Amino acid sequence: MSNxxxxxxxxxxxxxxxxxxxYDYFLYGTASALIFAPQFFPDxxxxxxxxxAFSTLAIGFVARPxxxxxxxxxxxxxGRKSMLVFSLLVMGCSTMAIGLLPNYHAWGAWAxxxxxxxxxxxxxxxxxxxxxxxLMAVEHAPRNRRGLFGSYAQIGTPxxxxxxxxxxxxxxxxxxxxxxxxxxxxxxxxxxxxxxxxGLYIRLRVVESPVFAEVRQRRxxxxxxxxxxxxxxxxxxxTGTFVGNNTLGYIFMVYLVSYSVDETGLxxxxxLVNLLLGSVAWLALTPLFGGLSDRIGRRNVYLLGxxxxxxxxxxxxxxIDTRAALMVLLAxxxxxxxxxxxxxxxxxxxxxxxxxxxxxxxxxxxxxLGAVLGGGFAPIICxxxxxxxxxxxAISGYVVLVxxxxxxxxxxxxxxxxxxxxxxxxxxxxxxx
Length: 433
Prior knowledge:
Blueprint: H1 3-34, H2 36-40, H3 46-77, H4 80-100, H5 104-107, H6 110-139, H7 146-174, H8 177-184, H9 186-190, H10 192-203, H11 210-215, H12 223-230, H13 232-262, H14 268-296, H15 298-311, H16 313-320, H17 325-343, H18 346-353, H19 359-373, H20 378-389, H21 393-410
Helix pairs in contact: 1-3, 1-4, 1-6, 1-7, 1-10, 1-13, 3-4, 3-6, 3-19, 3-20, 4-6, 4-10, 6-7, 6-18, 6-19, 7-14, 7-18, 13-14, 13-17, 13-18, 13-19, 13-20, 13-21, 14-15, 14-17, 15-17, 15-21, 16-17, 16-21, 18-19
């Protein structure tokens, strides 16, 4: 098999696999915004029930560093490919289990406990999935196209959201409100098995990363310990760059759906259509910004996206609060431009920051920690801020704060990363921060 064919398969495997993983993961986010409160926390008030549902969403993020450490360890020890197959199986089985769970009325307190367990398994899977997918795509890439190749792993996030939203829309549109609340919401979770089988077929056909093959004889005994000992600065930079992006991503994917329905009076169908169209825009922009990072550098693309995120923090809710569907859509589409710009270069950046011997561990741990500090608690924080202050200005201030945190990390990104005229040695064991 030629190197070009290997690279093509690696890109496809990264994109399809992450799409399926995030389809499963985002189903939970949409369901937590629309259905889980009455299904699993019916004795609580609407606000308390929503906070409880969002708390189970956050638990998955808390579990992600565990998945990042465990799967990163074995990804650096036995290979990227095996961990990608394992993560897909764990995510698929836990998602199907959610679709089969009895609700609170049928199972009592065991129902929310089982829901939490399934969410923990999703978090462990997500914690190790992204690092492997990113490395497989970037480590097969030509030196001057790492940003573009890495963006294929990033495409899986908005594409997974598009698929999950389309399925939710289809089920919601073909069932009555009572049917959807009773059994219709389960269908998207159960359909996961079809996508998992497709993903396994594709991932089992891809060859192992050539970089892992090169460093196989020099594997670290405890990769995560080596990251903490030798590259703590890289860990902090990578984690910090992801905090703002992940917060904004989950505000878009979860909180804005809830806010649009409950506070502005938009119907569930309209809110889901806006989410779908915003996700399509995010999907289309991701390879563009990934390719741009190859030409002007990762750091500059991050700065561009962060600047837009800061400028749009307040207009976002000003437009949403007009309660006009088109204005809400415009607000969300502009919003995802900044999200896409700060997400597209991540696979290449995280790969370039860490040495190959412990790169899976470094990338996965950074990504997971950034998610815990960012998106994991974003819907809860937004709900609490709005409940306390009664205004979206507090949420906009929160958006500004997390972006400033990421800007501090972005400032520390080496300026040469992503510029093809420079050698930043992704394929060398001498890569340093």
